[in-house]
Every structure is written in C-alpha cells, then in structure tokens.
Specification:
three-stranded mixed beta sheet, Alpha-Beta Plaits, alpha/beta, 10 helices, 14% strand, elongated
Amino acid sequence: MNQTVKEERDRISKISGITGIVINVFLCTMKLIIGKKVNSISILSDGFNNLSDVFNALMVFVGYRLTGKPADREHPYGHGRFEYMMSQFIAIMVMYVGISLLRSCVERLIRPETVLMDRYAVIVLGVSLFVKLGLAFWYDRMYRKSELTPLQAQKADSLSDVAGTGVILAGYLMGSVISLPVDSIIGIVVSVIIILGGSRIFLRMTSILLGQPANEELYRSIEEILKQDKEIRGYHDLRLHSYGSGNVYGSCDVEVNGDDSLFEIHDFLDVIEKRIFEYTGVQMTLHPDPIGTSRKIKEYGRIISDALKKYDERISYHDLQYNGMSKSYSLDVVIPYDLKVNEEELCKEIRKVFEEDSVEIKVDRE
C-alpha cells in the first residue's frame, strides 16, 4: 500500500470514528431522556442500541491504528486482518445489545406499563431516522474511498437502526389507538432485527477469515494483464489471499515456452509481476510451467481433450509434461466444485490414452 493511500485511509478512519461517536452520543442521550419521560421500553432500547454504536465507532477510530502496524517476525504479512476481527467485535456488541433489549422487552410484555404520548418523542424518533439514514449513505461513501471493512459493518448497522427506529416510531403512534402492548411488541421486533443484523456481520467476517475468494473484479483485472502478454500461453491456479484491505498476496501458474531459457522466463515474469502490482496492488508470484513441444505430447494432449469432453465441457487439464528423470508423464485435471463425477473412473480413462507409458494424474477442484 503506497503512502498516499495509507494517509487517506488514516484520515477516513479518523473522521468516520469521530463522526460516529458524536452523532450516536447525541441520539443516545435524546432517546434515553425522552424514553424515560414517556416510559417507553422500545425508545429506551433504541437509545441503548445507539450507545453500542458509540463503542463501534470508537473501534473504527482506534482499531485501524492497530491494523496499520508494520509486519514483524510473528506476523510477516502485517496486521491487516485485525480489521476483520474488529468487525466481528462490533457484531458481537450489536448481538449482545439486541439480546439484552429482547430480555427487557419480554419482561415489559409480561408486566405491561402505560406509555405516555409526547410530540417530542415523535420529533426525536423522526430526526434519528433521517440522521441514521444519512449516516449509512455516508459510511458507504467512505468505504468506497478507503475499502475499510469495518465501515461496511457500520453501514449495515446504521441501516438496521433505520428500520428499527421506523418500526418504533410507527408503534409509538399506534399505541395511542390500540389497546395491545404495542410498545413491548415493537421492542421485541427491533431486538430481533438487531440480533440478526449482528449475526450477519459476524458470519460474513468469519467467512473472510476462513479464506473466501477475493472479489471477482480483482481476479478479472489480473487475468486481463496475463492475457495481454504474448509470452504467456495460458494460466491456471490463480489464487489471492487477503491480509486486510490493500494488502493482498497472490500466486498463479503460467504456461510458457519450454524452449526459452530460464533467464528469459525470469525476466519477463518479473516485469508482469510488477505490472500487476502497479495496476491492482496485488503482490503476485508467477510460477512458470514450461509447455512441452514434442509431437508426442501434442498428440496426447489432443486425445485427452477429446476424452474429457465426453464427461463435461467444463473439465480441463494442464501441465502435461514428460519427466526424463522419472521417465513418466504427468498432468493436472481440473473439475468444477459443483460437478459430480467419478474421479477414479475419469483417471482410468485418461491412463488408457498413454497405453504403456507411465503417467501421474493430479485432480484439482476449483
């Protein structure tokens, strides 16, 4: 990540954190005051939800400083993934608040109390609704500029607050004309919305930490660069690993002319790696796979292609080579994850192509 980008992300994390803290402290204070005045558990619940948002904004403000720590011996790829853990912490806080509010609302449902009508309560809820909606759009704008993952969590939380406050406002207005304990029921609905919103954020961040693929646009950008170079005959096993926003490492096997010298191959792959980093920011390692040029390998390749088509057009192969030291052929067969096929039977069919020649077959799923 270059210094200009880092400084911009620092600035955005600081502004986002301070903005979130100020707005949510204001909304929390207003809702707790008016909720206590009119004896509304749903408005009080919304106020405590804004209090949790204060801590979330504080995490964005403080947490990014931790993600920006340089790499060290224990963390050679830096501390960028802390932002995903930070988002998980925000999600846990959101779920905790939701569960606490749910318990309070159920207790109020069992032992209902009178809720007073007050126009200032309507004003506070209406202002909160529009402020939170604007904050959600603002978080989205800041995320697009910085790609700070916690801002996505903040945006999702703000939108859930909009939905929750809207329901509370509707319920508060209905409470004056309906004999049912609308306040408690609305509070329960809002609590469930909060819990579900937090769980979605937590699960999404967990998926990232477990190693889900990078976004498709990044893959396509790298593929376009690889396709532009005439020295590259093909590529496979393109893998990207994210260690936080703006800190992505990748690897890819590229097929090159087996007759070229090692020095020539090294030089042009080094140029391509630098080009990929310049245009995408991905620190890529390209592994050369020399293509065999013998007539026998070409003939085997043609027959194998025909054999694989009998199973499915999506099945492919690569790295068809002859190893002079082991005196055997080898190749990798690629099968899509969602395609059900008997791998043992498929390999047996491929081995028939080589007749008496020895062959090692590796099956990959992607």
